[in-house]
Amino acid sequence: MSAVQEKLTGLLVSQLGVPAAKIEPDISYKDLALDSLALIELTMIINRELGVDLTDDILQGETTIEDTVELIESQGVRA
Amino acid sequence: MTHPSKGAVAITGVGLVTAAGLDTRTSWERVCSGRPTAASDPGLAGLPVDFSCRVPGFDAGALLGPGNAWRLDRFTQLAIVAARQAVADAGLDPESWDGTRVGVIVGNSLGGTGTWEQQHRRFLEDAPKSVSPLMIPMGMSNMVAGHMAIDIKAFGPSMVTATACASGSNAIGLARDLLRSGTCDVVLAGGAEAALTPATITGLTRMGGLSGRRDDPGAASRPFDAARDGFVAGEGAGILVLERPEDARARGASVYANVIGFGSSTDAYHATAPDPSGAGMERALRAALADAGAGTDEVDHVNAHGTSTPLNDVAEGRVLRRVLGERPLVTSTKGVTGHALAAAGAIEAAFTALALRDGVVPPTANLTELDPEIDLNVTSGKAAEADLEVAVSTSLGFGGHNAALVFAAV
Questions:
Q1: Contact criterion met (CB below 8 Å) for B236 and B347
Q2: Residue in B53, B66, B70, B52 with CA at minimum distance from that of residue B17
C-alpha cells in the first residue's frame, strides 16, 4: 500500500467512521455508503490533511480509492 | 384504580439520556437520590458561567456507529439513542411494525448549536470553502425528527415542536392528539436539546438567566429555595412511546402511566419574562385538568417546571397553590438534572410517569430553605413514598408558551 493510500485509509476510518476492513483499492465511495455531501466533506479533509487542492465535485460515487490516490499523487504529494 | 378519563393514551416505553444517566433506570435512580449533577464544564472553560449539567460519558460513536455519529449533531444523537431505548422498552420492533402508522413528534429549541458555532468559526477564520456541506442538515432543528424517523422506520407524520422550554410537553400533547384522531397507532414523542456550547451559553448568561454560583456548581440548581439565583443549563433527550390504551392492552404491553390531559396556552405578555400574574400558566393547567376530567382537588403530585430562577419559581408557585391548593407533593427534578431546555418537559413527563408507577416523589435537590413567598408542599431532603393516582407536569418557555400534562396511574 502506498503512503498516500495508507493516509487516505486512515482519514476515512478516523474522520468518517468507515470500517477499515471494507477499504480496498478498487472499492467505490458508493459501495462505502458515502453520499455526495460526505464526499465534499472528504474532499475538504483530504485538502486540509494532505495539502492538496481538489475541487468539491471531483469525488463521485463511482470514484474508487485508487482513483483518489492517483488524484492526490498527481498534485505531487507522496504523503 | 385507573382514572376514568376518555381519550387517554398509554406510555408503553421510555427512553432517557440525561445528565443523571445514560438510560431510564440510572436517570430515575439518580433523580430519586436527590444528588445534583451540575459540575464544572471543560467545554465552557473561561466563560463567566463555566458549569452545566452535561450528559456524562455519552459515546455517540459506540452507540450509533462511527459512520453515523459524525453526520449528526449531538442533540440528534441523544434523541436517537433515547428513541431506540424507548422502542425496545415498549417491546416494539421497527422491522415488523407498519411504519406508515408511526409518528414522531420531538421538541427542540436551539438546533445544532455546536454545529453552527463550529462552522461559523471556520467561516470567519478560514474561508467559505472550509464550511462543511453538512452544516445545514446537522444544524436544522427538524432534523432530529427526520433522523429519528429514518432510524426507526417511521413513515407517518414527523415534526419538531419549537416552543422553547415547553417544547417537550407540547410534543407529547400533539402526539396524544395524533393517537386520539386515529392518524397514528404509535407515536414517539419527547424532546432533545444539546446546546451547552460557548456562544449559546454566553447568550443565556447575558440574559441573566443562569445561576452564577461558580464556586459551588453542585448547589447552583435549587428550585424554590430562598437562595436560588438562576437556572443551570443542561442537556439531554427524553422519548416516550405512546399508544391508545386498548392497543397497548391488546398486545399485552406494560404501561407506565396514562397521559389523560393536555393544556397549552400563551402569555402574550413579554418575550422572555413570565407574566407575574400567572394567568397564562393557569389557563394551561386548568385546560389540562378539564381535558383530563380531573378535579383540582384530585392532583397528588406535581413535577413543576421549577427552573430555580427567582421569577419563575414564585410565579409558578402562586399558580400551583391557587389552582391545586396544598394537597400535591411538588418537586422540581431540575435540582438534579439542571434545565435541559426543550428536552425538559419530556424528561419530566417521564419522571412523572415513573413517580406514578413507583409511588415515589423525588426530592427537590438543594432545597434547604423554602422561599417564604412559595406556599407549596415541596418534597425535599429525600424521596417521599405516597399512593399517587393523578399527577401533573408543567412547562413554561421563552415566548410565553405554557403547557401542562396530566397523568394517571394504571
A1: yes
A2: B53
- pLDDT value of residue B274: 87
- Please report residues of B whose CB lies closer than 8 A to that of A38: 71, 134
Instruction: Identify the active-site residue in B147, B165, B184, B401.
Output: B165
ipTM above 0.85, yes or no: yes
- What does the domain layout of chain A look like in residue ranges? 3-73
Residue of A nearest to B130 (CA): A44
Alpha-carbon distance B132 to nearest alpha carbon in chain A (angstroms): 6
pLDDT beneath 70, residues of chain B = 1-4
Residue-range domains of chain B with CATH: 9-250 (3.40.47.10), 260-408 (3.40.47.10)
- Look at B65 and A16 and tell me if their CB atoms are within 8 Å: no
Nearest residue on chain B to A40, alpha-carbon basis: B133
Q: Model's pTM, two decimal places?
A: 0.97
Biggest CA–CA distance in chain A, Å, is 29
The partner residue sitting opposite B69, judged by closest CB among A17, A19, A41, is A17
CATH superfamily of A3-73: ACP-like (1.10.1200.10)
Q: For A30-67, what is each residue's pLDDT tens digit?
A: 999 999 999 999 999 999 999 999 999 999 999 999 99
Sign of CA pseudo-dihedral A25, A26, A32, A36: positive
CB contact under 8 A, A17 and B137: no
